[in-house]
Amino acid sequence: MKREILRRNKAWKLYRTIPTGTNYSKYKVLRNEANKQIKDHQASYRKKILSFKGKPKRFYSYMRKLRTVKDKVAQLTGDNGSLSSTDQEAAQILGKFFSSVFVHEPAMQLEDTVQGRQIILRSPIDEDTVKRKLLKL
Question: pTM to 2 decimals?
């Protein structure tokens, strides 16, 4: 497999220096062979790993590598300078931070002109009003 990859890379360099159709067709053939061997090797590795009879540690370590989401939350520094030791403390620190930077703006009166008409909204739009209007649709 390593030889095929080296041959593929050499053909690519040749094509990049002398870009002709024949060089590219040779590169394509070598590229396809190398990719096929790589995929076959990965499949045999997976098959060997997934036959986990008597080797659960190997199986679970492979499955952990495949996951993209990690379990742990990083330690965060709180207001008093101490590090969080549990996920719940980290969540509380994050909640305090987000609530401190969130801006609460008062409801505004909107004035719009639609086709020459002036529409003035005097009452703030609340969740119940929107819900009632959506249910009527």
Answer: 0.40
